[in-house]
Design goal:
Blueprint: E1 2-4, E2 10-13, E3 17-22, H1 35-48, H2 53-68, H3 82-85, E4 89-94
Antiparallel strand pairs: 1-2, 2-3, 3-4
Helix pairs in contact: 1-2
GO molecular function, one term: phosphofructokinase activity
Organism: Haemophilus pittmaniae HK 85
GO cellular component, one term: cytosol
Length: 95
């Protein structure tokens, strides 16, 4: 199960752990329209690429954070995500 909490991050709950992603604070929010859809798109991308869950959640968080910083749609160049992705904090709670 994946829970999105907006600017407060997201959680991925599986049988073995809770993975928490906290995106960096976005100083230039243009619009939050489509942020959730962008997160879902990032999740689908990560799952389709076979990325580990923590990496997938971090990528989805970066895509969503990128989405709120622009008025247009989509990510025309994935290198634009790199500085955001580098600042997504991932915590894994085993159990």
């Amino acid at each position: 199960m994946i829970i999105s909490m907006g600017a407060n991050g997201s959680l991925w709950l599986n049988d073995h752990a809770v993975i928490q992603a906290q995106p960096p604070k976005c100083e230039n929010v243009v619009s939050t329209v489509g942020a959730g859809d962008s997160m879902v798109a990032g999740l689908i991308y990560g799952i389709e690429k076979g990325l580990p869950q923590a990496e997938t959640l971090a990528f989805a968080s970066a895509v969503s954070a990128f989405a709120v910083s622009q008025s247009n749609v989509g990510v025309s160049d994935t290198s634009l995500l790199e500085p955001i992705l580098a600042n997504v904090k991932i915590s894994v709670i085993e159990g």
